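Assemble and predict.
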Amino acid sequence: MKARPRISLRRVIYAGLGLLALFFLVWAFLPKPIQVEVAVVQKGAFKQTVTEDGRTRAKEKFVVSAPVEGRLLRPQIKAGDTLEQGALLAQLVPVQAPLLDPRSKQENRERLGAAEAEAARARSVLDAADAQLRNQRRDLRRTEILARDGFVPKEELEDARLELKTRERDRDAARATLERAQHEVGLARASLQSGVAARLPGVEVRSPVGGKVLRVAQESEAVVPAGTVLVELADPEALEVVVDVLSADAVRVVEGAPVTLRNWGGSQPLQGRVQKVEPSAFTKISALGVEEQRVNVIIDITSPRDQRKQLGEGYRLDADIVTFATPNAVKVPVGALFRDGEEWAVFVACDGRATLRKIRLGARNGEEALIAQGLEPGEKVILYPSETLRDQARIKLPS
Amino acid sequence: MKAIHRMLFREIGQMKGQLITIALVVSAGIASLTASISVYRSLEASRARFYAYRNFADIFADFEAAPHRIGKIVRDIPGVTEAEPRLSFLVRLDLPDVPELGLGQFLSVPDGEMPRLNRLHLRSGRMPEAWRSDEVLVSEIFARANQLRPGDEITAVLNDKIQRLRVTGIAVSPEFIHTLIAGTPLPDDKRFGVFWMNESALANAFDLKEAFNSITLKIGPNASREKIIEQLDQVLDRYGSLGAYGREDQGSHRMVSDEIRQNRVTATIMPVIFLSVAAYLVHMVIRRLVYLQRPQIAALKAMGYEDRTVGLHYVRMVAILVVFGTLPGLGIGYWAGRWLTGVYQRFFMFPSLDFIFPPGTAALGIGASLVAGFAGVSLAVRSAVKLRPAEAMRPASPQNFRRFGIERALGVRNASPEARIALRNFLIRPFRSVLTGLAIGFAVAVVVLGVFWRDTIDYLLFAQFERAQPADAILNFRDPVSRRAIYEVAHFPAVLSAEEMRSVPVRLRAGHLSYRTQLTGLTGTPELKRLMTEDLSKLGAPPGGILLGTSLARKLQVQPGQSLRVEVLEGSRPAVELRVFGLINEMIGINAYVGIEDLNRLMGEQARVTGAAVLLDDQRSDRFFRHLREVPGVLATTARSTLIRSFRETSGSFILAYALILTAFGIIIAIGVVYNSARIALSERAWELASLRVLGFTRPEVFRILVGVSWLELLCGIPIGLGLAYWLARLVLSLIHTETFSLPLVIEPRSYATGAAVVLLSAAATGVILFAMIKRLDLIGVLKARE
């Protein structure tokens, strides 16, 4: 009888132990809370951007080209030189005669011979004309004396005068022929000359502005046709950025929009502002081989110059062009978003459970989404929700 | 002699319950032994035959492009008996019924002919005609997944040109017994296929004239593989070689080898467990029998039976038991082996995967169970034989029941008499009790071993895909392109965000050890393809350093802080020393990671990417994948959900099979142990129990005494089993550890609980049978026996 209460106590203990074991078994089979990652809903600045890579270029670039065809003497300037206005950029001198191949050379030599022979013949003709002229003069003088004395008729005298004039003209013609023949010889001789430098004064090309030499297109002596680019000059500090964006993005870019310029090599991103969106698009094949319509957006760099001393012309960088910005946005990482039917939703982590919440999305960029409605700052949302996660499922946050 | 035979049959009749339960345990052991052996022997034999018959190459090498004369130089390397140059390209496929891009590995065959090495087995159809440039052979597993038949057409993008190709035949190749997506350790039958095409057609399509970019070698029986690989590397180095490798590093060969090895492990561990439990049960039962039969043994001996004959009586009994256990075991083993081989047929493409049940296996099975049986019986029989007739005639002196010290410690001094009787019965033979507990423990452990795979795979998928790769898809570009491509991808439909990646093939060297793998460059703080340590915390891609997977670090024997040499096998092939900054826990594949800026600097290039990780709006992901078909620069996609699904499908059938088989085995052990232990207790205590009944104890009270011992054995056995399960699971995982998968040891409470619950339920079922026996206890008969 004494033992009775003890037994019942023991029974209670045993029953308790049994229940505990049963509880353990049931607990072990219950679905475990799903381990999730969470992010806190933030209130802060939100930016929607168009991101593309771009290049810097000088705002005012002067491309100096050859005004005439000529031989460019080796320029004395180098890329990077700072020049005053009017500094000598390049000197052009006349072009040398081309070299002759053996056949042309022989031809020309033969032509010279022929010309020389022709000259000799002309000289002979001239000599003959001269002799005839002298003879005629003598005749005329004789005829004049005779005519003065009246021994010959007047007509004869006139004939003789005419004859003399004719002889004079003949001699002039012969002299001209000789002259021509001599020029022919000179011509033939000149065409035999080739590759012989002729130091003659040329044209000097001078810098239209003061600035830095960006590029010397022709670094060595060369014969250049008129219009050849010789030197590019610019004010290197007056840089702008040109970025080609998709035409669908370009419509969202407004002039004056702030731009962040990253990955230019410096430690700090630079700031800029959209100066202009070009009015016409062009077709370009993308990196992945798709045809796209792209529009150039011109950006002014607004960061102080001493922050970007090293930045040169034609440098590559990435530009984030802000298309939408608000300072006080409720935002979550995009990894928390998913679609429930047609609407966007997130799982809110609350009291150890995941609650499905439909939200209205304002805008999103590659990292964050702006919540128009449905979430309060400070609430926790589940990142990258797995397919097993359901509404009201129990969850475990990382410790 | 006749008397003793009759005795044998009568005893067997009396002990049929016990013998059947033991025979079942033996059956389970033999079944697991023979099934595993026959599976791996079948795989081995089918593979060996396939390799020999189809001239599987010994050494493989891929490179950028080399002129044809190099083939001759390679052939002249001493030890090389045959070398076959070929073309190999990864090609995009447009599949009509999956949204994602397909990927094809295109290999060349001599125009219209079989290659000399890695000859194909045509399952149906014919080789492409020598003069046709639009005919291909398709690997069987891809053809099956996409329901392709000879005569069907498939669309492929060969070097930017969309081409309709006609399937002329379905082939299996010794190179692709198991098809893994090129460059990954994962299969995807529907989206990745292997194709064989005429060499001239493939060369034309890729504008590669008089050149080749892959070579396979067969070497002489005495040639040194390492030496030839070294020489081959030297020859191919300036042709952009990705490093030659032997069979052991060939994807398909390695997968099949791993599978064979895993079956070997199963063929060892499981039978050892079952047969040792069976040996213990045999020992316990026969020993008890000998104890009960002391008078009979004495009588037999007194009548002139020799020790040997008496001993042989028990041995014969065990022999019969073993035969009864082994025969069904062999049958089940044969059936299970056949079934498992059939399961493998879904994953491994042999011309024929013939099931082999080598006679040796049966002999081994019978031998193993006989060894177990005789090991169990020998001790017991010795005690029977040792008995002297006069001594044996007397009943054995009762055991010295007393108050045990432990009772006080447990605080059961004032417990009910039933509890005390049960406890003392348990404690009086501590050795037997502990062994029984251990046997129950094995039952628990076997069930846990069957069901814990689910936890391991779940954890692997969780850690690898949910944590380490939140990206919904990974894109691979055809060539390294400008980072502009990432902004382009970010504009694709349904993309929420995109992150850049760049991979280059490298050889990592640390001292004399080296390993070929992919070096992947990621952004400083990657969010979509993350680098995780073992405790799932994130690591950033370190500037100026390299991160290795733990198994790669183990392979190269490097610790964080040490440096290793990275030789890039692409482009200008730069090499650099990098310090190991940390280890990451990668369970699938073997990879190394650096910052993408560092990688581009090393390659001497600016802002290049070869791939992107993208986060998608899941509901619209189809639009994304459809859009990719219009983008020629994208070579391949891997969608995470597809990968997980295919992983689950592949592992799922094996996991289920394991869980069912091992749970059944666990039940068999549990019933065998609990039933036999209780039966022995019943026979030992029959007289006392009957006396107690006569003294007025009720049936349930008597039952409680009997079952109390079993309770204590379970109480002691289950914790042992849980510990044992952990230890065995660890052992199994370390034994089946493969190069490409390091499965984490994760056992959730539900698996432990399943083990415990299965054993408890089996014990409860046994208890019902025992209660029926108590009910039938013939009071008068039992009590009279002592007179």
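The two ends of chain A are 54 Å apart (CA to CA).
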